[in-house]
Design a protein that fits this description.
The chain is an alpha/beta fold. The chain has three domains: 85 residues, Gyrase A, domain 2 (2-Layer Sandwich); 252 residues, HUPs (Rossmann fold), CATH 3.40.50.620; 176 residues, Isoleucyl-tRNA Synthetase, Domain 1. It contains 20 helices and 14 strands.
Length: 571
């Protein structure tokens, strides 16, 4: 039981005894403003049983709860149909401060359960742009959330290294650039430009399109010359991807490639035909899912070449067989929502009834509109990094002229990552992200740098503190009666809700919940710090406030670790 659950349990236990009713913790909410109280209990569900209006019940309950003798409840009042309970600050501190070190530990909830989270999934021979960052940061955060709860997680990347896009790129390469050498160190980006050229020209010319399709057929047939070129250029893209992942601090346990499951996928399609789960329609192989209101699922093209579906059918089985999974999670944009419903239903018809989930997310756009690799109007990650880091290095050097160039560069890079990742994660996955670097880099407001700056500010306070005052251990609750200010209590209540927030983010596949929590926690600290001097003259009060600072810093650190955001001692 975490600190918030302990507080809630004690309050509801005392309340239930005094009111002679059972209050479900799920009913409890947090008032929109702390001036109304710290806990709100709605009375709607009790109206029928007690044959009274919710407002009348609230008034009666508020009077009774105000007389309850428990350290946690300071007062209670009615506000319409709600009973608002104000908690005792010192009692809250007693329950929160001894527990704050647990934020760095792992829950045992998921112990023994195996989960694979497949994310990122870039296509070789295409650009890696800022739109890919949303998938990479979302997937990495989900991996960390599940691991925080003790799950055995396999982080998987599924690379699209075959298909029409590869054929278009190789067509452009062999047709127009066969004698060119790509720029050293930027081969992957060069291939991305060739893909755009190939796509534009093959879409505009039927003869060119047929030539591109012929390359695809030859690749799938194992043409030696084209296969050698494919392997060579594939390495260029993969090298670029791995450099970017290293830069982002994103790691994978398993790498899958579409090329490796293509043949096994085609064998499954043959089995589907034999079992009459699939049928031929106008030359293509389909699974008719009209009865399930899911339309028609295409599993093989008319020319016999494979589709995403062909390969995903094989990969799903391979994942569960090799790793004995309890669940497989796919992080893929919401344009594929129908596709995954069809995929999961087809697997069920095959008798493959496993727990699978599709975490859908919206796209990243610019102020000018949507980005598209095909149109070539994407913002490349490397370009953003170079531009933003140059800007941040200049600003950091101005603030800290005594810092070494290496330290300036390191801090600038960390701030850049904090800004980019927070921008991608702060929005609910169902919401579009409008890429705006100026907003993301702000040191105040709902941004990653604001969270990082709050952490650095606390670190600065702790560096200046007398060593004898730094006693932020489980015995910290002994100082609780020195933390009676309203701002201290609100900060303590924020810290108490850490585990519940992390669990909600995991259960809903939504790290934005944690982003909001970290921002509100940092803001609560700012409110406290702006009104109360931490390094005050009173020895006991100073020690208590330093404990609160350490608890806040530790909580921010644990949350940023989950989101993959670097925390900084100085900024």
């Amino acid at each position: 039981m975490n600190a918030w659950q302990q507080i809630l349990s004690e309050v509801l236990k005392a309340g239930s005894k005094a009111l002679r009713v059972t209050i479900d913790p799920a009913l409890v909410s947090i008032p929109p403003d702390s001036k109304f109280g710290d806990i709100a209990i709605p009375c709607f569900s009790f109206a029928k049983e007690q044959k009274k209006a919710p407002g009348i019940i609230a008034q009666e309950w508020a009077k009774k709860l105000s007389r309850v003798k428990t350290p946690l409840i300071a007062s209670a009042n009615a506000a319409g149909p709600y009973v608002n309970i104000t908690l005792n600050a010192a009692a809250v501190a007693d329950r929160v401060l001894p527990e704050w070190v647990l934020v760095h530990e792992k829950s045992r909830e998921g112990k023994g359960k195996r989960v694979m989270i497949e994310y990122s999934q870039p296509n070789t021979h295409k650009e890696f742009h800022v739109g890919h960052l949303r998938n990479a940061t979302l997937g990495a955060a989900l991996v960390n959330l599940y691991r925080k709860f003790g799950y055995q997680v396999k982080a998987a990347n599924y690379i699209g290294d075959v298909g029409a896009h590869v054929a278009k790129c190789l067509w452009a390469l062999t047709k127009f650039h066969a004698k060119e050498k790509p720029p050293k160190g930027a081969e992957g980006a060069w291939l991305g430009k060739l893909y755009v050229e190939g796509h534009v020209k093959t879409e505009a010319d039927e003869a060119a399109k047929e030539e591109s399709k012929e390359i695809l057929r030859k690749l799938e047939a194992g043409n030696k010359k084209l296969t050698a070129l494919w392997k060579k250029t594939r390495v260029w893209s993969l090298r670029q991807f791995k450099d970017i992942y290293k830069d982002l601090g994103v790691t994978f346990d398993v790498w899958y490639f579409e090329s490796a499951v293509e043949n096994s996928g085609k064998k499954i399609v043959k089995e589907l035909l034999k079992k009459k789960i699939a049928r031929i329609s106008e030359g293509a192989t389909i699974v008719d899912l009209e009865k399930d209101k899911l339309g028609v699922f295409l599993v093989l093209r008319t020319d016999g070449t494979a589709l995403y579906s062909t390969k995903d059918l094989a990969l799903a089985q391979e994942k569960f067989k090799k790793y004995t999974l309890d669940e497989s999670i796919y992080v893929v944009d919401n344009r594929q929502s129908q596709y995954f419903k069809q995929l999961f239903r087809t697997l069920e018809l095959m008798g493959f009834k496993k727990k699978m989930a599709h975490v859908a997310y919206e796209m990243v756009t610019t102020k000018e509109g949507a980005m598209s690799s095909r149109a070539g109007n994407v913002i490349r990650y490397e370009e953003v990094r170079a531009e933003v880091e140059a800007r941040l290095q200049k600003e950091t050097k101005t603030r800290h002229p005594d810092w070494s160039a290496q330290k300036v560069a390191g801090v600038a890079h960390s701030i850049m990552l904090g800004a980019l990742k927070f921008m991608m994660l702060q929005h609910d996955p169902s919401k579009v992200v409008v890429f705006n670097m100026d907003e993301a880099l702000a040191f105040d407001g709902y941004t990653g740098p604001y969270i990082q700056y709050s952490y650095a500010r606390i670190a600065s306070i702790l560096r200046k503190a007398p060593p004898s005052s730094l006693r932020a251990t489980r015995s910290g609750a002994k100082q609780s009666h020195y933390l009676t200010e309203p701002e201290a209590k609100q900060l303590l209540l924020m810290l108490a809700r850490f585990w519940d927030t992390v669990n909600e983010a995991r259960a809903t596949y939504n790290p934005a919940v944690l982003c909001r929590y970290l921002y509100e926690t940092a803001k609560s600290f700012t409110d406290f710090y702006s009104k109360h001097k931490v390094l005050c003259d009173d020895t006991h009060q100073r020690a208590a406030r330093l404990i609160l600072c350490q608890a806040t810093q530790g909580t921010l650190e644990a949350g940023m670790d989950i989101l993959g955001i670097p925390w900084l001692e100085e900024m």
